[in-house]
Amino acid sequence: MVPLYEYHCLTCQENFTFRHSYKETISECHLCKSTGCVEKVLSKANIVLKKALSSKEPIGQITNESINDARQDLEIQKKELKKKNK
Fold first, then answer.
1. What's the predicted TM-score (pTM) here?
2. Tens digits of residue pLDDT in 19-65
3. What is the biggest distance separating any 2 CA atoms in the chain, rounded to whole angstroms?
């Protein structure tokens, strides 16, 4: 199975996902078609894995902390969306 990567376009400020092999790179936004303005978004899973490999904390504790951080981020985003929609 080919991995799914998330990207952010600096031109249109939108995120999009794209499946490709590890060795491939994306330089064009699939939404606005601008070239040279795309950045790969680092996923939380990668951050947790890197922290687990470099830490002496138990993996379960690191995972729970990451889940709680994600919940807090979602709550903040939810409040911001409610303010926008009013």
1. 0.52
2. 888 888 899 998 999 999 999 887 666 666 666 777 788 878 877 88
3. 46
Residues 15 and 7 sit within 8 Å (Cβ to Cβ) = yes
| Integer angstrom CA distances of residue 83 from 17, 69, 73, 76, 78 | 27, 21, 16, 11, 9
**Encoding tokens for residue 77?**
């985003």
CATH of 1-41, one of 2.60.40, 3.30.70, 2.20.28, 3.40.50: 2.20.28
Q: What distance in Å separates the CA atoms of residue 15 and residue 31, rounded to the nearest whole number?
A: 9
In this structure, what token pair is assigned to residue 86? 């009013």
The token duo for 23 is 């060795």
CA separation for the pair 47, 44 (Å, rounded): 5
